[in-house]
Amino acid sequence: MKFYKFICVIILYIICVSLVWLVSVNSAAHKVEFLLSSATQDLQEGMDTMLDSIMHYLGDSICALQETAKSHTVEDMSYLAEMIQIDEINIITPDGTIIASNVPVCLGESILDSPAKEFLELLDNPGRIFISQPFRHGISNPQDYRKYLAVAYDDLSGILQLGYDENRLADNFDERFLHVIKHLRIGENGYYLGVHEAGDKIVVASKDQRYLTQQRLKDIGLSRKILDRCQPSKTYTRYIRDQECYFRYFRYAKHDLIAIVPATEIREFTHTIPIVAAVVLLIVFLVAGGIITRLITTGQHLNAMRASEDALRSKDLSIAKTIQLSSLPDTFPAYPDIFEFNVFALMDPAREVGGDFYDFFRLGTGKLFVLIADVSGKGISAAMFMMKAKAVIQACLTTISDFADAMMQANERLCEYNDAEMFITAWAAVLDYTNGELNYINAGHNPPYLKLRDGTLQRIKGLRGLVLAALPKTKYRVSTIKLNPGDTLFLYTDGVTDAVNNDQEFYGIKRLEEKICTAGQELCTEIFHDVEKFAEGAEQSDDITMLGLDYFGPPRTTEKTFPAVQEHITDITKFIETFLNKTECPAKLIAKFNIATDEIVSNIIKFSESSVITVKVEACSGLKVWRLTFKDKGQPWNPLLHADPDTTLAVKERPIGGLGILMVKKLMDDLHYSRSGNQNVLQMRKAWTPEKNS
Amino acid sequence: MNITKTKHNDKLTITVSGRLDTSTAPQLETALTNAFDGIKEMVFDFQDLEYISSAGLRLLLSANKKMLDAGGTVIISKPNQIVREVFEMTGFSDIFTID
Questions:
Q1: Is the per-residue pLDDT at A101 higher than 70?
Q2: Is B95 at the interface with chain A, CB within 8 A?
Q3: What is A67-170's CATH number, 3.30.450.20, 3.50.50.60, 3.90.226.10, 3.10.129.10?
Q4: Candidate from A570, A599, A654 with C-beta closest to B53
Q5: Which residues of chain A neighbour B67 with C-beta distances below 8 Å?
Q6: Is the dihedral of CA A574, A575, A578, A583 positive or negative?
Q7: What integer is the mean pLDDT of A521-538?
Q8: How many residue pairs bridge chain A and chain B with CB atoms within 8 Å of each other?
Q9: Which stretches of chain B are DSSP H helices?
Q10: Residues near A682 by beta carbon (within 8 Å), at least 6 away in sequence
Q11: CA distance, residue A599 to nearest chain B CA (Å)
């Protein structure tokens, strides 16, 4: 009986080990198949995306320059095509007629019967940026083999279609290919090779295998003949460079691109796992007695693991949100002492953080940098990349004086180590707030709005460059506009227009434009509430981010010097009051300024022993903010150093002095003392906020 | 600034209009000299007072101390919002009766 039991256990053990071995070998085959099919697919998609982004960039730039779809001569179009190194450019009206082209036979033709018809959808759906199609034969000239992409003119007067010839790509193949494969990996040790479709010489190879270029397929154990016998997109085994390898190839732009992965890659499945399994199973069988209890414990353990995974994931999301929010400036008013402008921004992160961010900071004196940006992707990786981007852009802007150079340098640094192939759309500007000059750079972001003093709305189109972190050596050009006092700049990310309600409708451009026009001083907040109201509580998939910049121009100001004697306090008060009245200061605020003036001037006369007092009053023309500055040439006297009197004592213990300065501190928003040269400078500021003062 | 005094038995009403600050406080100081004799209730009518600075508060405090010594009270009547605010920020609202 015992013997039978023993034999049974042995047989059971052999069956188990064999099963594990079978499953491992099967998994190995699957893994190879998966590695190679995704490797070839990634490469093909990478090449397509790279071409798309080049063509999209070119198309957008042309549309921005030409503004509207109209006819041009074949010569002009040919010149343009040659300039931007593209093979076909067609301008097509909404009815599908080609009204301008560098290819004479295309002129006047209709695209309604060709695959290009799809491009007209751009006009029905202004939200789409471009439509691209894979390589195909031309309609008017079937020997052409081209990739086509179209963008719409901003005014929807037509579309611009670009064609990129396979031959052109084949001629520049190595450069394009190397850029795309830079970040592609095949397992741990796999790599890519490329040969011309008729050749045997390796023309391109993955970075770590670059020494293989110029060698022949023969030299590494493959050959043109073998390749021709193999079918594209099927996996084969072969000794390549004296090592058992799996490979698969596909054809792209007259090249055969081969993805190779060594058999050692799947060693774990063919060797490690079966051996480990045999040992483990042996142990398991030996302690068969305890197996059931063990299974129960494992079950509990699995549940616990699942729960902790969920917790980790939601923790990841909250970490991402914290990273994103904590790195953005959110104290407003951000520059209470600067009267020339007011900047406000807000961001509402989606549950799965989208990587939006904004930034603003002063560059030296008289200049303000503003930025809004959207990182591709979501979650913690987008948040991390956003942190890096924000730091890099700030570092470049503060160390490089030329704006375009700074942005180009930022792009270089963001392209480095960008293994995840993330990119950023951004709109950045430097405002010289002494004169309203606004220099800006658009890196693939949606153009912002400019609300003029008279209420009209403009879109700041200008030149649009490629997104940041996509291609090294990208050039960015600066455009310039002039802001006038009373103008407001409004930047936003597509999370605003793409906000949806429960009927899956978009908030859209039209609602946004209407709201910008009707909104008051608190533009961003009002728009945000409008979007919230529209969404009716529907969860948003993207962050909602906005930045508003009100330009007020230099403040109105007046200044006068008075003798520092008791008898002139009334004159000083009157001088200040006249200016406050002229700048429409509310009466309640004037009373507060009068009290503060009375306290400060009488203190100066008493303590500093100066013979004169100079008074300066400034009024911000946009926001209701006023600032008083008192200067005297007496001995150093800082009223802020005096301790506040105790205002809780009983009548008899109440001290008489010190109340005046306490009142000024409480009446004003801000009181600031400095000793400058031989002068005491005392500055105070007060803003009118209806809810606080009414 | 204008000051008028109305006496009714042991109640003295001092009506102050305009601005009570460093330059006008001396006028009130003069008006208060010798005004305490036989007075049990001193009312400052501030209905038409625009604002008050610490120079004015000082006079009110010393008047309050004097009235307290004599066993009387000081009442601040109908101050506007700013005057009320000043009383609150200085803690004067705790030691004066305001109506």
A1: yes
A2: yes
A3: 3.30.450.20
A4: A599
A5: none
A6: negative
A7: 91
A8: 71
A9: 25-32, 54-69, 81-89, 92-95
A10: A600, A604, A629, A630, A631, A639, A671, A672, A673
A11: 7
Total of domains in chain B:
1
Choose from B1, B19, B20, B21 for mutation: most chain A CBs within 10 A: B21
Asked if A681 and A675 touch (Cβ cutoff 8 Å), the reply is yes
Which pLDDT score is estimated for A694?
43
Residue with tokens 């429409």: A584
Is residue B2's pLDDT more than 80? yes
- B58 vs A contacts (CB less than 8 Å): 656, 659
Average the pLDDT over B5-11 and give the result: 91
What CATH number has the domain spanning A321-551?
3.60.40.10
Whether residue A592 and residue B90 make contact (CB cut-off 8 A), yes or no, is no
Q: What is the pLDDT of residues A264-308, one digit of tens each?
A: 877 777 777 778 888 888 887 777 655 645 666 677 777 777 777
pLDDT at A263 over 90: no
Q: For residue A322, what are the CA distances in angstroms to A328, A352, A496?
A: 10, 12, 21
Domain with B12 in it: 2-98
Say if residue A623's pLDDT is above 80: no
Chain B interface test: which of A598, A605, A647 (most B C-beta within 10 Å): A598
B19: CATH: 3.30.750.24
**Residue A646 gets which letter from DSSP?**
P
B19 touching chain A per CB within 8 A: yes
Mean predicted confidence (pLDDT) in A488-514: 93
Give pTM, 2 decimals.
0.53
CA angle A407, A373, A454 (to 5 degrees): 100
Chain B contacts of A647, Cβ < 8 Å?
89-92, 94
The residues near A50 (Cβ < 8 Å, ≥ 6 apart) are A176, A179, A180
Q: Does domain A556-693 have CATH number 3.40.50.80?
A: no
Enumerate the domain spans of chain A: 67-170, 171-265, 321-551, 556-693
Q: Which residue has the higher pLDDT, A656 or A564?
A: A564
Kindly tell me if the per-residue pLDDT of B20 is higher than 90.
yes
ipTM of the complex: 0.92
Fold of A171-265: Beta-Lactamase (3.30.450)
| Residues of chain A with a CB closer than 8 angstroms to some CB in chain B | 566-567, 569-570, 573, 588, 591-592, 594-595, 598-599, 601-602, 647-648, 650-652, 654, 656, 659-660, 662-663, 666-667
* Cα separation, A466 vs A252, whole angstroms: 25
| Residue from A636, A635, A632, A639 nearest A616 by CA | A632
Are the beta carbons of A656 and B62 separated by less than 8 Å?
yes
Report d(CA A281, CA A277) in Å as an integer. 6
User: CB of B61 within 8 Å of any CB in chain A?
Assistant: yes
Residue A459: strand pairing partners: A449
B34 inside 8 A of chain A by CB: no
Closest residue to A598, CB basis, from B22, B68, B95: B22
Q: Is the Cβ pair A659, B54 closer than 8 Å?
A: yes
| Shortest alpha-carbon distance between residue A605 and chain B (Å) | 12
Query: Would you place residue A409 in the very low, low, confident or very high pLDDT band (cuts 50, 70, 90)?
Result: very high
pLDDT digits (tens, 9 = 90+) for A31-62: 888 888 888 888 888 888 888 888 888 888 88
Over residues A193-244, the pLDDT tens digits come to: 889 888 888 888 887 777 788 888 888 888 888 888 888 888 898 888 888 8
Q: B19, A594: Cβ pair inside 8 Å?
A: yes
Asked whether the domain spanning A171-265 has the same topology as the one spanning A67-170, the reply is: yes
Residues of A in contact with B23 (CB under 8 A): 566-567, 569-570, 598
